[in-house]
Amino acid sequence: MTHTRDSEPPPEPRADRIGQLVKLAGRRPVPDPAQWAHAHEAARLEWTRIVERRPWRVTFWRLATAAIALAGLGTVAWLALRHPSAPIARPEIATFDAVTGPLLVIDSRGASRSVTAAGERIRAGDRLETAAETRAALRMPGGISVRLDRDTSAVVESENRLILQRGAAYVDAAPGSGGAALHIATSLGVVQHTGTQFEVRLDAAGLQVRVREGSVAVDASGQRWTSQAGELLVLTRGRPAERRSVATSGPEWSWVSDVTPPFRLEGATASAFLHWIAREQGWTLEIDDPSLRARIDRVGLHGSIEGFTADEALAAVLPTCGLASRRQGNRLIVSAAP
User: Per-residue pLDDT tens for 228-261?
Assistant: First the structure.
């Protein structure tokens, strides 16, 4: 005699059981792209191996395992699209001190913005592109000043490394500046320094390093060259390195003066002003009367010299302090006004 057990539910269809297994698998954590690709390839190979076997040897559990794997990957992809990982914050490491025209800042994700004035911050990984009419000055950690010439492309990789892709960069790192030395990396070599002023220029002809003050070391092709103030080092692919003598002041440095960060005259002393202008122009400051030194240290200044050339600034400031100046070569000689 047959008894029907009405209290028992009918067996679930096979597809529903697979669905239950997929649900039990739950959401998986979002892997990085490399892990995702590896898992996807493993699942694809397993699926191919299974379906290539004879149909009557394929068991339900293998099909279920493959279905779970593929469903899990689908869930991961869906979650990654629905909840993309937050971008990693890039530290701010520099500030524009001066800008003479529009320039382009392109971040590490490819987003770009135009900068036309000083004050904007620069983040690690930003690429700076100056136009044919644009120059810019940056303030790096420790007070190091970096100036970019026209038609220059440079990446501010970190607080102590700048990648020069083309054009020219001028570095002013006064002795005693805080922070690590700034490295200028190029396709032909890496330039590093200890408290100095120098220019690095990269073009189709090669790499040129002009030293205005102090010394720099250039590492290239497994060799190191050291250059002192008044020297130009030229590196060209396939040719020996060349050294030449160069002036430390004059017209060849004029582009640097065009983008000099403004000096805050209000509240400064005459001594601070004179030392600043001499350094910016590559001059040697001399006081012809030792008794003037204490006086210059005490004299306070007022007003502004923004937009003035070096000669215009001297002519405007020194008479108000009872001082006069004259130039002999690269010497700036200061004396009491007659």
Answer: 999 999 999 889 999 999 999 999 999 999 999 8
Parallel/antiparallel/unpaired status of strands 331-336 and 284-287 = parallel
Instruction: Please report, for the chain, the start and end positions of each structural domain, with discontinuous segments joined by +.
Output: 14-82, 92-254, 262-336
Distance CA 120, CA 108 (A): 17
Tens digit of each residue's pLDDT (9 = 90 or more) over 82-124: 555 555 678 999 999 999 999 999 998 999 999 999 999 999 9
Angle at 183 between CA 256 and CA 114, to 5 degrees: 55
What is 262-336's CATH topology? Phage tail protein beta-alpha-beta fold (3.55.50)
Structure confidence by residue, pLDDT tens digits, 116-175: 999 999 999 999 999 999 999 999 988 899 999 999 999 999 999 999 999 999 999 976
Q: Is the per-residue pLDDT at 53 higher than 60?
A: no
**92-254 has which CATH code?**
2.60.120.1440
